[in-house]
Specification:
Length: 87
């Protein structure tokens, strides 16, 4: 069920910001997703603990910062390939 929820959230955000690209919409949803909570072992959760957290489309629609990077830029910034993420 994560795919239909993500798609529906993206549609709601795109209704508010029809000028945003797909990458900007995804960025807003990911940067405003819920990331709190704890594991059963009482450590803080992060994206590696179980994927992205639940989307909050209302907060995503109000995002003040979104990223619009190309795949080529992400690959070029990959430290495993000699890139610098700060660029």
């Amino acid at each position: 069920m994560s795919s239909p929820h993500a798609a529906g959230s993206a549609i709601l955000v795109r209704k508010v910001h029809p000028d945003w690209t797909v990458t900007e919409t995804k960025s807003a949803l990911m940067m405003t997703a819920f990331n709190g909570g704890t594991r059963r072992t009482e450590y803080s959760m992060d994206a590696d603990d179980g994927g992205q957290r639940p989307a909050r489309p209302a907060k995503a629609a109000l995002a003040g910062l979104v990223m619009d990077e190309t795949t080529a830029n992400f690959i070029a910034a990959n430290p495993a390939r000699g890139g610098d993420p700060k660029t």
